[in-house]
Design goal:
Radius of gyration of chain A: 15 Å
Structural class of chain A: mainly beta
Structural class of chain B: mainly beta
Order of helices and strands of chain A: EEEEEEEEEEEE
CATH architecture of chain A: Sandwich
Number of helices of chain A: 0
Helix content of chain B: under 10%
Largest sheet of chain A: 8 strands, antiparallel
Radius of gyration of chain B: 16 Å
Strand content of chain B: over 45%
Largest interface: A-B, 53 and 55 residues
Distance between the termini of chain B: 42 Å
CATH topology of chain A: Jelly Rolls
CATH class of chain B: Mainly Beta
Distance between the termini of chain A: 8 Å
Number of helices of chain B: 0
Number of strands of chain B: 13
Strand content of chain A: over 45%
Shape of chain B: globular
CATH topology of chain B: Jelly Rolls
Shape of chain A: globular
CATH architecture of chain B: Sandwich
Order of helices and strands of chain B: EEEEEEEEEEEEE
Oligomer: heterodimer
């Protein structure tokens, strides 16, 4: 039987000043999946947006990505890396609205399996990406730190929204 | 990953199939969930799907028991076990991108991790089943799915077709070279209302 509305906003952050890391902490464990939407720009272009779960900055992340850059489609892989990348060549611009990422963090609160996330990153000026990532940890995710690689800084007006989806 | 589709594969560029847009919060409802917390299961079926939504979204976190790191599994509608399905896939394996077409197939195709992947590695996919109650149209699905095994993996954009005008009231797994979804797989079906 339908259980009623189940797609809920957990938190939204709009940057009032330039900021290097955006954090969602104390994430409730009561949902089934999380959806993170970023609409961000950086002070310097071509930065990759990444996540750290539960403050883990160790080499416990990996990913497989499919992307197209306007000339060709290709795929790439990263193993034993310290970032949960959510984009590849669909990376950030310096103007708000030029990059949007949607990340689905599946079954995030279970404490038995590693965590898998699916993301789509879009930058019409550079590339479009589809990405699957893994965090090799069985802990329930209760914190997400979002940053941009190589000392990227998100600019004022960048938005980050976290949703929770609850299964029946 | 071994791709054992059991059908001829042609390298035809598929439809750019999947994006996942923000949903309108009060129009998105949970219909049913299958949580394999107690053990493996060779039969996964969602039946008596309400006809009161405009679209369905099928969110799956799963691993099957095939002796590979990943596998293609299919989904059948309304108990139709015939070859009335087709899919186009655009996928990347970490080294190259490729595309495939699966014609006259036994279900719409998706990808999950399999039993040779590292313990605890589960694949995932999100399938949108569009206009599923319409009795004048064939049914089209679009899927974003994949798995990553820290050194191997697969990411896919899939488009599926069921050549039937029937409203969809049942969704069931159809295995190929696997016989069960592993324990801790989690499958959830949601309905999205129209205005």
């Amino acid at each position: 039987m339908p259980a009623g509305s189940t797609y809920s906003t957990i938190a939204t952050t709009t940057l009032g000043s330039n900021q290097s890391i955006v954090t969602f902490s104390s994430i409730p464990g009561t949902y089934t999946d999380l959806v993170l939407i970023t609409n961000a720009a950086t002070t310097v272009a071509n930065k990759d947006v990444y996540m750290h779960f539960n403050s883990d900055s160790g080499s416990n992340y990996s990913r497989t990505v499919l992307y197209g850059n306007g000339s060709s489609a290709a795929s790439d892989r990263a193993a034993n890396v310290s970032f949960g990348w959510i984009d590849y060549l669909g990376w950030t611009g310096t103007t708000l609205g030029t990059q949007v990422c949607v990340v689905n963090i599946m079954n995030y609160s279970n404490s038995t399996t590693n965590k898998t996330f699916l993301s789509r990153a879009n930058n019409a000026a550079s590339a479009v990406d589809a990405n699957v990532g893994m965090w090799r940890n069985t802990a329930a995710i209760n914190r997400i730190d979002i940053g941009a690689t190589t000392s990227g800084i998100f600019i004022t007006g960048s938005t980050f929204t976290l949703y929770g989806i609850t299964a029946a | 990953m071994v791709r054992d589709w059991g059908h001829s594969v042609s390298p035809i560029l598929g439809i750019w199939a999947s994006q996942n847009y923000p949903r309108i919060t009060n129009s998105y409802e949970s219909i049913a969930t299958i949580n394999l917390s107690g053990g493996d299961s060779g039969s996964v079926t969602f039946s008596s799907i309400p006809q009161t939504y405009t679209h369905l979204q099928f969110r799956v976190f799963a691993r099957d028991n095939r002796a590979n790191v990943g596998n293609t599994i299919r989904w059948q509608f309304n108990g139709d076990t015939g070859t009335n399905y087709s899919s186009h896939l655009l996928y990347g394996d970490g080294s190259s991108a490729a595309s495939a077409a699966l014609t006259n197939d036994y279900g719409v195709a998706t990808v999950v991790s399999s039993n040779s992947a590292t313990s605890g590695v589960f694949g995932a996919f999100i399938m949108d089943i569009l206009d599923y109650t319409n009795t004048n149209k064939y049914k089209t699905t679009r899927t974003l799915g994949g798995f990553d095994n820290n050194g191997s993996g697969d990411i896919e954009l899939d488009s599926g077709l069921w050549r039937s005008t029937s409203a969809i009231n049942q969704i069931a797994v159809r295995f190929n070279s696997a016989t069960a979804l592993k324990q801790y797989s989690y499958l959830a079906l949601y309905g999205i209302k129209g205005a």
